[in-house]
Write a structure and sequence with these properties.
The complex is a heterodimer of chains A (298) and B (294). Chain A is mainly α and 298 residues long. Chain A has helices at residues 10-35, 51-56, 62-95, 101-111, 118-128, 135-142, 153-181, 185-194, 198-226, 230-235, 247-257, 261-297, and strands spanning 4-5, 37-39, 45-47. Helix content of chain B is 71%, strand content 2%. Chain B has 16 helices and 3 strands. Classes of the chains: A mainly alpha (298), B mainly alpha (294). The interface between A and B is large, with 110 and 113 residues.
Chain lengths: 298, 294
């Protein structure tokens, strides 16, 4: 659709701009302010320049080491999550029934975990995975496997990953299903005439058609797993030790637990810059895909 | 793609081949798909079943041993939540800020989404991207500055603080979803209405709004949902009077140990609102999660 150039449209956008600026720019400026100052308490601040940033990005300092390890931990977590949830989501979308009342039933049941408050998700798994009163922990222990997510780092990781797969795979599946539904029957008929294999149909018809939704799925899953806080906080509290202390948990501990304003602010800004950079890459790719599609359709 | 479509009849393989193709198109066997789907849904439902199961048990039964079904169904946990003010006020608080936030987000987002779907203006693409980045911003980054900001303006521990804070990600989300729906309405409708002598506000309310009613419903649902599931900001910005239910749940530890049954019952009650409305948006749910871009 061609759009009219009209700068007065800004008046329509103004309320949104004002609200989001109030809740985004204003707080961010406070963060910037804190990040270059140090305090002795009693609200007495003095200029500290880029000191906090230097400390944060220097892996040999204590803060730098802590930041680097939780950053790597978070990246590893996001990577594992994407590796599991994207293929599994595609598989589930392909397994969706084509028609009938089961479609609606599957959609509703699949969406259910997405609508549960995040700390309740944590609570559900906290209970479900316990060795004494939880079904999962009890069964795993009965199978002779020593499993204890509060004591063992690996068990904690596995539990958090399974929890996240449980929580968010449906999102990937729903997006892929929406992409699959947009494929006209004629494509499948053509493939049938060709005698295309199941794999060929997937590679040449279904996957290209899902490219756009998959992009969105990867973006959302990366972002949300990169800033995960509530679920692991409820489940493991970042432990055992620091094994599951992700970036957000670390940051909140620093900011609201220890009130280490300067350090927390510097960390917030670096964290936000990473998010911004990733966002920009995805947005550029997404607009390019859109433009390409419009060119193909035109 | 083009290579595979351009085939002559000579390429069609005889019976055995086309049967293989038929089978290939409907999956290896219909059963294979049913198995995958059933296993997946089972995986999704098991933890929820366990929560419901626990909420109907007494604490002695929960701690004394594993039972797949409550031996004696008790509704005491639910009764306690509905009669104890410190419990049910949590639900009221949560619902208050969620509703304020939904109304605010939608009413701000409507004109903006119209502008994005109909006009090009200075900085529109940058603004759209900036909105997206706010949907992606980690709440952990904003927890401390929000705490300072809302304390400074005297809104701390009120539903308004949480409602405004959640606008950070819900307003952009609503703009993105609504823009997607509005772009589906042909602009000829706007022009015809203008020729027919409709003023812009009348056109927007009388003609345009009914056309995008489903979009407004979907956007409202998603604002409701994301405000409902978020806890970090909600907990940081409240202490006593506006405490959300999700935060109330963290204090089920008592002198006699964890009150598991009560915790489970409270959890079940937080799942219900989502489960109730999900039916109405089931066909749009992918669109909502995809920020209106499907």
């Amino acid at each position: 659709m061609t759009k009219i150039v009209n700068n007065r449209a800004w008046f329509f956008v103004l309320p949104v701009f004002a609200t989001v600026a109030f809740s985004a720019i204003l707080p961010l400026m406070t963060v910037v302010n804190y990040s270059v100052q140090d305090t002795f308490g009693n609200n007495q601040f003095f200029w500290n320049g880029i000191g906090w940033f230097q400390e944060l990005l220097d892996p040999s300092s204590q803060l730098g080491e802590q930041f680097l390890s939780s950053l790597l931990r978070t990246l590893l977590f996001s990577f594992i999550i994407l590796m599991i949830e994207i293929p599994l989501g595609i598989a589930v979308a392909l397994a969706m029934p084509r028609e009938g009342w089961t479609v609606a039933l599957c959609l509703v049941l699949m969406a259910l975990p997405l609508l549960i408050p995040w700390n309740v998700v944590g609570t559900i798994w906290q209970v479900f995975a316990r060795g004494d009163i939880g079904l999962l922990g009890w069964i795993v222990n009965r199978l002779g496997i020593d499993y204890n997510y509060t004591g063992d780092a690996l068990d904690a990781w596995i539990t958090i990953i399974v929890m996240d797969v449980w929580h968010w795979t449906s999102l990937v599946a729903l997006l892929c299903y929406a992409g699959l539904k947009s494929i006209p029957d004629a494509y499948y008929q053509a493939a049938r005439i060709d005698g295309a294999s199941r794999w060929a149909v997937f590679r040449t018809i279904q996957l290209p058609k899902m490219r756009r939704v998959l992009l969105i799925a990867v973006l959302l899953r990366f972002m949300d797993s990169f800033m995960i806080y509530t679920e692991p906080f409820v489940l493991t509290g970042g432990g055992p030790g620091n094994a599951t202390t992700f970036l957000s948990i670390d940051l909140v501990k620093l900011a609201l637990g220890q009130f280490d304003l300067g350090k927390a602010a510097a960390m917030s800004l670096v964290y936000n810059l990473i998010i911004l950079a990733v966002c920009w890459v995805f947005y550029t790719v997404m607009t390019n895909v859109d433009a390409e599609r419009e060119r193909v359709e035109a | 793609m083009s290579g595979t479509i351009a085939v002559g009849p000579t390429d069609v393989k005889p019976v055995a081949g086309s049967m293989a193709a038929n089978r290939a198109l409907s999956g290896p066997r219909v059963n294979g798909r049913v198995v995958v789907m059933t296993l997946y849904l089972l995986f999704l439902m098991l933890p929820i079943y366990w929560l419901v199961n626990m909420s109907l048990k007494t604490n002695t039964e929960i701690t004394s041993g594993l039972t797949l079904w409550p031996r004696e169904i008790t509704f005491d946990n639910y009764v306690k939540i509905f009669t104890d003010e410190s419990w049910y006020s949590g639900y009221i608080n949560s619902l208050t800020y969620v509703i304020i936030n939904t109304v605010l987000s939608i009413s701000f987002a409507l004109p903006a989404a119209y502008a994005f779907s109909r006009y090009r203006f200075l900085g529109d693409k940058h603004l759209f991207f900036w909105l997206l980045t706010n949907r992606m911003a980690p709440p952990a980054v904003f927890a401390l500055p929000f705490f300072n900001l809302y304390s400074a303006i005297g809104l701390f521990d009120t539903p308004w603080a949480v409602a405004l804070a959640h606008c950070l990600f819900n307003v952009p989300l609503a703009v993105w979803i609504l823009e997607g729906f509005m772009s589906g309405v042909p602009r000829e409708i706007d022009e015809t209405a203008a020729i027919d002598g409709y003023s812009f506000p009348r056109f927007f309310i009388k003609i345009f709004m009914p056309l995008i009613a489903s979009g407004v419903g979907v956007a409202a649902f998603f604002c409701f949902m994301f405000s409902w599931v978020e806890l970090l900001l909600a907990r940081t910005l409240t202490s006593v009077t506006a405490k959300p239910i999700a935060a109330t749940m963290t204090r089920t530890v008592s002198a006699s140990g964890m009150d598991w049954g009560l915790l489970a019952a409270a959890g079940v009650l937080t799942i219900l609102p989502g489960a109730l409305v999900i039916w109405f948006v089931r066909n749009y749910i992918a669109k909502g999660f995809a920020l209106g871009r499907v």
